[in-house]
Structure formats: structure tokens, C-alpha cells
Amino acid sequence: SPENGPSQSGRRSDRTPKIYTKTGDAGFSSTFTGERRPKSDRIFEALGATDELSSAIGLAGEFSSEKGHEFVEQLHKVQCMLQDVGSNIATPLSSAREAHLRRTSFSEKPILELEQWIDSYSEQLPPLRAFILPSGGKSSAALHLCRAVCRRAERCVVPLVQAGEADPNVAKYLNRLSDYLFVLARYAAMKEGKEEKIYIKPEP
């Protein structure tokens, strides 16, 4: 009907904020503290790796959900924690005011929770007797990919921590998260009855 035509939908979209701001077209972006830095700055490299990690976990979560894995809720919680990781990274301590620090501090509690999860799954797994290749079904392989992205995110964050720009707990969380993702990948393969491929040295 005419009421639902393009003109009306156009008016509705005029009231909707645009997804593009154009503020980064010159190659700069803003930290949470308001600093303008080049997009090549290591803060944005770390933020990008963290965002990529959350996206990879989202994909792994979808595969895992299709298989009915109960740990999917944990993966969603991890994604929420990665938002807090990003907030901390985006708040360089050198320019943060007290109000910024209150909003973006990162505690040790989520690290301890990851350790509890790791211990719980590790107790149920057969011992490692060979080098495991990323494999074991779609859920497992996707979680292995998450682990690799997590390691890269950690490598991006460590220099920020060493420079006093990010909270050490953020690096610790990512370090523990990669361990969790590895154990979870093995657990997913076991629960699905999928074979984990192992490294076999090629014949000379």
C-alpha cells in the first residue's frame, strides 16, 4: 500500500543513526579517553584481534549449539568478557582519568572462573600422548581456530601491558582463555565421538 512505500521507509531511516561516521576516513580513530591515534596504532591492532576472536567464538558457538553442547552459554559469557577486554584496551592508562578507570577496570575474577572451567573439562579428557592437530569435527576445529586467534590477541596485548597502557589481568585472561579453548576443543570432539587427528612425522 502507499503508506508502506519507499517514501515512508525513507523517512523512518532518516531518524535512524547512520552506521558510518566518516570520522576515520583520514586513517585515525579515537580511544575511549578521547585521544586521536593512527589506525595502525597497536591499541587498534589489539582491539581488532579481540573483535576477531569474539567473532570466531560466535561461529564456534553456532556449530556447538547445533550439536547441543552445554558449554555454549560459557562461550557467550566469554564474548561478553571480551567486550570488557576491548574497553580496557581502548582506555590507555597513560591518558585515563579516574572515571575512565572505574568503568573499564578488569578484575582477576574472570581469570579464576576460566581456571575452574579448564579443570572441570580436563578431568574428563583422556591424557595427551601426541601433538593434536586442529580437527575433531566442526565444533572442535572451530574452537581450535578460536584458540589460535586468541594467541594472536594475546601477542597484541602483551606490549600494551608492558608499556603500562593496559591492565595485566587482560593479558592473563587471554592467556588462560587460549588454554580453555584448547581443552574445550578436545572436549567437544570427545562428546561428539569425533577422532582427533594427531601429528605424524612424514617419512623422509
Using brief descriptors, characterize the structure shown.
ATP binding, single chain, CblAdoTrfase-like_sf, PduO-typ, Hypothetical Protein Ta1238, Chain: A, disordered N terminus, two-stranded antiparallel sheet, Corrinoid adenosyltransferase MMAB, 204 residues, mainly alpha
Protein architecture, described:
The protein has 204 residues and is mainly alpha-helical. The protein has one domain (38-192): Cobalamin adenosyltransferase-like (Hypothetical Protein Ta1238, Chain: A, Up-down Bundle), CATH 1.20.1200.10. 60% of the residues lie in helices and 3% in strands. It contains 7 helices and 2 strands; from the N terminus they run αββαααααα. It has a two-stranded antiparallel ribbon. A hairpin with a 5-residue loop joins β1 and β2 (36-38). α2 (42-66) packs antiparallel against α6 and α6 (138-162) packs antiparallel against α7. Residues 19-188 form the Cobalamin adenosyltransferase-like domain. Residues 1-10 have a biased composition (Polar residues). One of its GO terms (molecular function) is corrinoid adenosyltransferase activity. Belongs to the Cob(I)alamin adenosyltransferase family. Residues 1-37 are annotated as: Disordered.
